[in-house]
Amino acid sequence: MTRVLVTNDDGIDSPGIVRLAAAAHDAGLTVVVAAPCAEASGSSASITAHEEDGRVYVAERKLPDLPGVEAYAVAAPPALITLIATRGAFGDAPDLVLSGINRGANTGHAILHSGTVGAALTAAANGRSALAVSLDVGLSPAGPPHWESPARFVADLIPVLCRADSPVVLNLNAPDVSADEVRGLRRAKLASFGMVQTQIEVDGGYVRTTVVDEPSLHEPGTDAALLAEGYATVSAVCPIFEVPEVDLDGVVEAVGQSRR
């Protein structure tokens, strides 16, 4: 049976991770949950952890409504949790990694900074396909998050991960509406920006940063635009890889000759 690690960057106590683990369990997967003991949003693929004598704190946890599912709170960001999971830190190494459900959309090139996506990319770099899942709660949510909206697509996307010949990362986002209000699932290219933009104010001695939603900047057909239109979006994201098209032969040869 396929074994899956479920992690996130919102922390072990986030209700989103429970909904994602439940979706994986209902899809017939063997689930182990391991997530940060505190929020680690924006940690990207960081593997910096709280250590004492080289040891990372790990504690068993019980998750609500998921009896029998192993769960661990770890004093580390999700990328490191994913890395050590592939080395057998939480029992047998997982076949797949699911990351989320994140409280907030992860769209556009800003996914570089996401701990949710960072965990998925780390999985791929270590030979496992992964799915990053996020819910667009926005900066001013109107009510409790609709975790069921992204969770409903998990079972449909898992076979894509299992069929892949090499590790692939899928990035899933859903609007924060009830499941029957989602207009459908669309494949989307990454926007140049994410759902929110970072603004800075520079003054003597400090830099102040704020985030704002800028729907006017949403490019048609991108994940940010389609999500704003009420669609769930999925994008296939490349893990770290070499770019052979860049011509480096000339400079390599020149440097090599200069050192002879």
TrEMBL record:
Protein name, as recorded: 5'-nucleotidase
Entry EC no(s): 3.1.3.5
Catalytic activity: a ribonucleoside 5'-phosphate + H2O = a ribonucleoside + phosphate
Family assignment from sequence similarity: Belongs to the SurE nucleotidase family.
Ranges of residues in domain Survival protein SurE-like phosphatase/nucleotidase: 4-191
Annotated GO MF terms: 3'-nucleotidase activity; 5'-nucleotidase activity; exopolyphosphatase activity; metal ion binding; nucleotide binding
Top enzyme class: hydrolase
Keywords: Cytoplasm, Hydrolase, Metal-binding, Nucleotide-binding
Domain of life: Bacteria
